[in-house]
């Protein structure tokens, strides 16, 4: 049977690369587009190593509408998964213009081309940061959105609204996936999170510290109103997250009734920063060097998910937990340093 073509923007990025592998393994034909702003082009050869096929890749900046449209002229695109965006909460507070310009212009261009060329399904990489500072967790899709705590979160709130407004005139179906904290690596340890610049997310900071590439890591504040004073997050294994995208695509192409559907993608459990560090140390038998420092602007105190809707409608649920996240992240970091 002819494979349906799926344009994966941000295809050489962390979630994009893992999702390309899952899409191909489930009968889709992914095409990657990425400008390498925050990802490693070598992901393509690692993907090839895992699936045995070289995925078609376009090195294009999605902020360039003319260049973006060339892809739609060359390829028959059945669906799009739009990952391409900058996604570091702390960095977005420092660089709001970069985040609004990059994340919104890219989305507008891809969405405009998708409608012009009759794309049937649009999966949007949204985020739990759209919920803002929630009053309690677990958070479900009906939880009222609070003001975003960071420009990054604001770009995701605005992104969801842009899609809802722009899609009305088309027969496209859109699925908005609100990720909690993606973490961990492919079980082969051949691919994982490899930020171009210094890591900003907790788990890669932990593994960089453990392997000695960072002398000591900082815990951003231990005076929050939580069980040990550090922030609570819901860490979701990247392999579970990749699987969820393929299931969301199946849903959008073959079952979706409403034009726009929103789903939380999280593990349903919350861990404090110190608990996450302890989980890493315990499962890998490695002692971490860390110090308590000032709070990081843009952080919410605590948030974790309910994924019941994704379970009932996407037939998805996480297979892995914090132990597998920390194990796979560590295996990837060790492997990654072998080739440095
Ligand atoms: C987690 C916790 C930090 C680094 C991420 C993604 C975002 C979105 C939501 C998908 C916070 C603390 C971190 C460090 C620390 N996901 N921390 N020392 O900010 O929750 O956002 O998940 O869209 O894209 O970025 O993740 O890993 O940066 O922080 O203490 O060196 O770890 O303060 O409490 P965050 P994070």
CATH fold topology of one domain:
Rossmann fold
CATH class of one domain: Alpha Beta
Please bin the fraction of helical residues: 40-55%
Shape: globular
Describe this structure in words.
The chain is α/β, with parallel strands linked by helices and 340 residues long. It has a domain at 5-183 and 236-266: NAD(P)-binding Rossmann-like Domain (Rossmann fold, 3-Layer(aba) Sandwich). It is built from eleven helices and 13 strands. It has helices spanning 14-25, 43-51, 65-74, 89-94, 96-116, 151-166, 202-211, 238-254, 273-284, 308-313, 322-338; strands at 5-9, 29-33, 57-58, 79-82, 121-127, 173-179, 181-183, 217-220, 232-233, 235-237, 260-265, 271-272, 290-293. α1 (14-25) packs parallel to α2 (43-51). It is globular and about 50 Å long. The protein starts with a strand and ends with a helix. The model has no long low-confidence stretch (mean pLDDT 95). UDP-4-deoxy-4-formamido-beta-L-arabinopyranose (WQD) binds at residues 87-89, 127-129, 179, 181, 200-202, 205, 217-220, 231, 233, 273, 296, 299.
Short description:
This protein is of the alpha/beta class. It has helices at 14-25, 43-51, 65-74, 89-94, 96-116, 151-166, 202-211, 238-254, 273-284, 308-313, 322-338; strands at 5-9, 29-33, 57-58, 79-82, 121-127, 173-179, 181-183, 217-220, 232-233, 235-237, 260-265, 271-272, 290-293. The chain is built from 11 helices and 13 strands.
Structure keywords:
340 residues, alpha/beta, Rossmann fold, seven-stranded parallel beta sheet, two-stranded parallel ribbon, 40% helix, 16% strand, binds UDP-4-deoxy-4-formamido-beta-L-arabinopyranose
């Amino acid at each position: 049977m002819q494979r349906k073509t799926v344009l994966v923007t941000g295809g050489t990025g962390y979630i994009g690369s893992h999702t390309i592998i899952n899409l191909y393994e489930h009968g889709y034909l992914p095409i990657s587009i990425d400008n390498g702003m925050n990802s490693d082009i070598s992901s393509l050869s690692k993907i090839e190593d895992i699936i045995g096929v070289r995925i078609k890749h376009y090195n294009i900046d999605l902020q360039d509408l003319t260049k973006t449209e060339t892809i739609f002229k060359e390829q028959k695109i059945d669906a799009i998964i739009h990952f391409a965006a900058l996604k570091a909460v702390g960095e977005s507070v420092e660089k709001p213009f970069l985040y609004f310009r990059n994340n919104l212009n890219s989305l507008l261009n891809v969405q405009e081309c998708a409608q012009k060329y009759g794309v049937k399904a649009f999966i949007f990489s949204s985020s739990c940061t759209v919920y803002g500072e929630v009053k309690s967790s677990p958070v479900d899709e009906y939880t009222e959105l609070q003001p975003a705590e960071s420009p990054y979160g604001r770009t995701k709130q605005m992104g969801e609204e842009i899609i809802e407004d722009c899609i009305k005139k088309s027969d496209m179906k859109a699925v908005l996936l609100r990720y909690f904290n993606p973490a961990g690596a492919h079980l082969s340890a051949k691919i994982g999170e490899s930020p171009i610049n210094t890591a900003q997310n907790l788990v890669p900071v932990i593994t960089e510290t453990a392997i000695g590439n960072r002398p000591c890591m900082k815990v951003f504040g231990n005076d929050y109103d939580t069980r040990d004073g550090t922030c609570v997050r819901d860490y979701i294994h990247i392999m579970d997250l990749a699987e969820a995208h393929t299931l969301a695509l199946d849903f959008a192409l073959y079952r979706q009734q409403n034009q726009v559907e929103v789903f939380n993608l999280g593990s349903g459990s919350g861990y404090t920063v110190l608990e996450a560090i302890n989980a890493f140390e315990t499962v890998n038998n490695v002692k971490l060097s860390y110090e308590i420092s000032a709070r990081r602007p843009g952080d919410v105190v605590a948030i974790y998910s309910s994924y019941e809707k994704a379970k009932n409608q996407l037939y998805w649920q996480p297979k892995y937990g914090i132990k597998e996240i920390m194990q796979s992240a560590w295996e990837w970091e060790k492997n990654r340093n072998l080739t440095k």
